[in-house]
Design a protein that fits this description.
The complex is a heterodimer of chains A (365) and B (239). With 365 residues, chain A is mainly alpha-helical. In chain A, 66% of the residues lie in helices and 5% in strands. Classes of the chains: A mainly alpha (365), B alpha/beta (239).
Chain lengths: 365, 239
């Protein structure tokens, strides 16, 4: 058994491609998602058409511009030519204050402003409009302070758990999930398929080793490597991206280990149904990678999907693991809140192990 | 005393009969040639003898154990070399020997001793730290054979061991087989080279899942009035 594990490490360490996937990819992905693929909007160019130019509109404008989300664009379109500036793409949002803003606010307790955003990029537009109304609301409250007025309804939005809307909070759990899934499932399925293809599996089966020992010997190195990877992703996101772990680190690592075991059993299953290394690689890429990214709720919210896809996403193991990671890392919740998800992943692991053993036995006959 | 005893072995895949009532035995220390055209059922029979596949019916005893019920005991006493080259290309010669010695449960000292001994016999001690992938095919085949007998099995099964190898290496390979047999290890070999069949003490020829001829090469040639085994084979295959 020890010899088996040593041999597997030789395979991994002598193959440049495995090394790149194992150690290069986690670092690149974390940094990519952390820095480059940010969904936060900073310094969005905004054009302001101020028909009043009184103390209130100037106060709101300076509040907007000092927030860090907006910079004032030098382009000031005429009222009828707003579309033009959007077409040039140099302005993301246009704000228009009506005439006599301050006076109307004082007299009628009501004044209007228009916020127009370039929604050809809907996510950004949505964020900008939200930021703007939040800032205006904020100003409104300050303004009302100390004034005796009829009750004014103000909407109060609060971004729970991620008050700064930092996108790293969203990405790190997703990246951990994708990497663990990919490394473990893909690498094991490829390495077992390789053994089949090279004919070495035949020799192993003729030896006195039991099938379960053979599989364990192939799988244990990947458990270790995937675990090392999980820890290094967490370290990297903590040190470089400042992502905290609010809940129990031990619980997080234990859950990661469970997820790794699940991904491994999936990898073994893939290798039992693929005839060659290529097929194992294609299967893991298309059957694992894409659904993991698209249907796990990592990038696209599950609630927004059409119903059939929502139902389908239930059988995606990453979906449940992302919930677990978010609960522990960001919300700091304990096991009593995630036992259901844990149970689902454990069930999936058992399912794939049982299926693989059955497949393995059929082949022996 | 026979080391392999097969009586009325039948193997069916659905309605297809791959092995139809095979009966034969192999003596200890014998070199036994297992011939037949592609698809005649050789590989199926060999898999059953190695404990990789269970017989549908019949009695198969290998090294004194029943393969259907005691395959673990059988597996410890046999060696196997497949037609596909089966050592690890990204491991060195030495590491391959260490690994295969290990899966047969040999102690480390024993593995070292056997590795030195086997490499010495092939004259490949100086290549022991080279990666397998960098060696010529003939050497790899000889190494694969040495690995198959690292645990000193009672029987070694060779499935077309000389496929794709040049005539000189083939000759050397058979010298090693003879040497191995002289140490008391039974050699059970399949081949498509009919000149190699002449080197065997006895050969059987399979066709359509049955053994149609089994005797020494000399007796077979006499019986079929043929100059060599190749002619015998063609006469049987055409009838």
């Amino acid at each position: 058994m020890r010899g088996f594990i040593i041999k597997e490490f030789y395979h991994i360490f002598r193959d440049i491609r495995s090394m790149v996937i194992l150690f290069g990819m986690p670092v690149v992905q974390v940094l990519l998602f952390g820095f480059a693929l940010s969904t936060e909007v900073k310094n969005a160019p905004v054009a302001i058409i101020d028909h009043s130019n009184d103390q209130v509109t100037r106060a709101i404008t300076s509040k907007l511009l000092s927030s860090g989300f907006f910079v004032l664009s030098d382009q000031v379109p005429g009222e009828g030519h707003i579309e033009e500036v959007f077409r040039h793409g140099k302005v993301k949002e246009v704000i228009i204050f009506e005439n006599d803003f301050a006076a109307k606010l004082e007299k009628d307790h009501q004044a209007g402003m228009q916020v127009i955003a370039d929604a050809s990029d809907p996510n950004t537009a949505n964020l900008l409009v939200n930021y703007t109304s939040a800032i205006v609301n904020d100003y409104q409250q300050e303004y009302l302070k100390g004034m005796l007025l009829p009750a004014t309804i103000t909407t109060q939005t609060q971004m729970m758990y991620n008050p700064a809307l930092t996108s790293i909070y969203m990405f790190v759990p997703g990246v951990i999930t994708i990497l663990l899934m990919l490394i473990t499932a893909m690498m094991t399925s490829i390495s077992i398929a390789k053994e089949n293809e090279m004919g070495t599996m035949e020799i192993l089966l003729v030896s006195p080793m039991r099938p379960i020992q053979i599989i364990a010997g192939k799988v244990i190195p990947y458990v270790l490597l995937a675990f090392v990877n999980a820890v290094s992703i967490l370290l990297l996101s903590y040190l470089v991206l400042g992502m905290p772990v609010k809940g129990s680190l031990v619980l997080l690592l234990a859950e990661s280990l469970l997820f790794i075991v699940m991904a491994l059993s999936l990898g073994i299953f893939i290798s039992t149904i693929s005839k060659s290394m290529q097929m194992a690689m294609m299967l893991s890429m298309f059957a694992l990678m894409l659904p993991t990214i698209l249907l796990s709720g990592f990038i696209f919210p599950i609630e927004n999907m059409p119903l059939p896809l929502q139902i389908f996403s239930n059988i995606m193991p990453p979906r449940w693991f992302i919930i677990i990671v978010k609960s522990i890392m960001i919300k700091g919740l304990g096991f009593q809140y995630i036992w259901k998800e844990t149970l689902i992943i454990a069930g999936m692991a058992l399912f794939f192990i049982a299926l693989s053993i059955k497949k393995f036995k059929v082949r022996m006959d | 005393m026979p080391i392999i005893e097969v009586e009325n072995l039948v193997k069916k895949f659905g309605s297809f009969v791959a092995n139809d009532h095979l009966t034969f035995s192999v003596e200890a220390g014998e070199i036994y040639g297992f011939l037949g055209a592609n698809g005649a059922g050789k590989t199926t029979a060999m898999k059953i003898l190695c404990g990789l596949s269970a017989p549908t019916s019949g009695k198969v005893m290998v090294a004194g154990y029943d393969v259907a019920r005691q395959s673990e005991m059988v597996k410890k006493r046999i060696g196997y070399m497949s037609q596909r080259f089966s050592l690890f290309e990204d491991l060195s010669v030495w590491e391959n020997f260490q690994f295969y010695g290990g899966i047969y449960g040999l102690p480390a000292a024993k593995i070292r001793q056997r590795t030195t001994e086997l490499l010495g016999r092939l004259g490949l001690e100086s290549e022991k730290n080279q990666l397998l992938g960098s060696l010529p095919l003939g050497w790899k085949q000889k190494l694969a054979f040495s690995v198959a007998i690292i645990h000193q099995p009672s029987i070694v099964f060779l499935d077309e061991p000389t496929g794709g190898v040049d005539p000189i290496t083939r000759r050397q390979f058979w010298e090693i087989i003879y040497e191995t047999a002289s140490q008391g290890i039974t050699v059970f070999v399949t081949t498509h080279y009919m000149d190699e069949a002449e080197y065997c003490r006895r050969v059987s020829i399979m066709a359509d899942g049955r053994i149609v001829a089994l005797d020494t090469p000399a007796n077979l040639k006499a019986k079929y009035q043929a100059a060599n085994i190749e002619e015998v084979f063609l006469k049987i295959a055409r009838s």
